[in-house]
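Page 42, continued from yesterday. The earlier attempt failed because a stray header line got pasted into the input along with the sequence. Redoing it now with the clean sequence only.
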Amino acid sequence: MLGALATFTRRVVLGAVVLVPLAYDPHGFDTPGIKSLVLTLGGIALLLLGGLAVLGGQTSARRPRAPELLLLALTAWAAFSIGWAVNAQLAETRTLALLGMCGVAAAARDLVPDSAGVRRWLLALLTVGCAAVAIDAVAVVRESADLPDSIRKYASILFVHNNMASSYVILLVPLIAALTLVSRGVGRFVGLAALAGLVGYLLLLRSRAGLAGAALGLALVGLLYVGRARMRAIQSHKLGWSVGIVALVLLGALLPLSERARGLAKDGFYRGVNLIGLDVWDSQFRPRLWAKTIEMVKQDPVRGVGAGNFPVNYARYERQKIAKPHAHNDELQVLAELGLPGLVLFLGLLAALAGALVHRLASTEDPADWSLAAGMTGSLAVFVAGGIFEVPFALAATATHLALLIGLSAALGRATPAAASGPATRVPLGLLMLLVAVPALLMTLRRAPGSELRAEAEQHREAGRLEQAFESYQAVAALGTGSAVPHREAGLIALQLGDGERALEQFGAARALWPFGKEYGEYEGDALMLLERYDEAVDAYHEAVLGHPSRSAPLFKQAAALERADRPYEAIELLTHEIRADPQNIGADVFWQLALVWRRVADELEGRGEGTTEECVRALVVARHFHAVFLQDGEPSQREAVNESYKHVTHRLQLLAGSPDSWWKTTYQDFLDDGWPMPATALYSSMDEDGVKLYPGWHEPEGPPPPRTMRY
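This time it went through. Structure tokens are written below.
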């Protein structure tokens, strides 16, 4: 009874897993994540139910074929990599997703009795896929109307990014094409309509890569159809076929490590980009990303950085404002995360599945059976081709498709049901499946409420309930998803609350998960400033400056921390160095910061009764200089406020005895000492909405030089 119920439930759950492409997060957070969660939960539940079915004597537990065994081995290697991964939680999440794929493949292998069953499941898969495309097409049309061209690639709702959408859609094209070729009447019409709809969707996404992938799938199915009479010749060359597969695996494993091969691939890539008219700017990041990924691989080519840990480690090799989530290449992604053993297992899995499908193509004479094998072969080929520029193996919708191909391929040509195994085999197998599935299912369920809790945290934040928002983000972090975002957001909320200690604690926890993130130096500096630990804040901001040298905010904050640490001249030196490093491209805000620092130095000296000393006069003169430079180069909207400060500093200088000659001498000496020639406006004028105005009483033998003649 237990075994029969488990088998029935297993069929229901497998049907639910087919719906992964339709999975959608109502809160709008990380839609690929909700798909991965459905795949993982469904696949592990299938594994658990399979164990119960085996223990109950309702075995459809056939022996796994080579592709499935290689997927199991890859999953085991990913589990081992948790031990050396920087972010163990992300490694666990990726391993659980791979285990879910194993569960889906095993269930499809056990529950689908024959080729007729394969056809039914593939039709269900195609029905779900076409429904997802239809729903998403409506969403894309609605979203695109409100999105600028620069971000229209995010118009997809079900797949978030148009590249993810096209990666999934092109897998359906060969299946539909193969089934359409052997259909008649209404079936052929429906198939052609579905193909037209998929192509139209790719055109809507403006995905040239998707259209190329669809064309590849159609071409391959067409070639198989034309040459199917010759496929039987493969049967007489089994040894040569096996050697060819092994050579393919080794070649695929070694090519990414060859400088010459990468150079040829890069040349070919750019020629292809130019040939089909792709946006070169949009395409250039991939070769750079691949080169940086190879640098990562060379650090530990055998073990890799750990399953799921690519985005955590990539920041070590390239400065970036947004973390790169993947390598945009399946082979490099697997190689970087799981090393050479992982890559060989992955390529072996693809080669073994291709071998099984081609063997079926060569051995069957049944048109219906042939169409299934041809469609699955074309879909696998498109999966591999798509993996050159994207990562379908890491995306839940496409990974589910691959898992189903692995399982369904075992049923092609099968004519008899599986025989029940004896107790001596059944009990250990069932217990082993439960031993793996139960803790994996509990770990996955523990992470499931993440989206709900994060939405709750955002609602609290928007309503101004910062303490509740902080607690909700802590609850998300406690789920162990591997993401540093909940800790980071909790830390930022703590900063809003003025709680430096809690902010530091959260940023430290985020660093533990994402140690190479460049933004945490600035966040920690803000927390340390709240705690009045100014010298430590200086060091934290310095790290942020090194991480993102193009951003000015950390630089200004470091200067402010130096001031608060009673080190104003170090702040001046820091900002001055920034100007000298690139004087032609420096932002005007740096001049404004320098003006403020020098004015504060003058204020402090005047407060100590040293307002007429040479040092104070120099501080006022240089402050006035940088006020003037900012008035020349800064934003017009800021000039009114800056000009008031400029006039105030000038007035203080005019009050000095012998003005302006008394401070002109200081100006000239400062130029001799530091090499800062004063701009014309700094000596003679003030600037407001009416333009440049000369102050009365200032005399030069030949009159003032024209304004804006010199910046520094």
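Notes: The mean pLDDT is 81.
Reminder to self: strip header lines before submitting.
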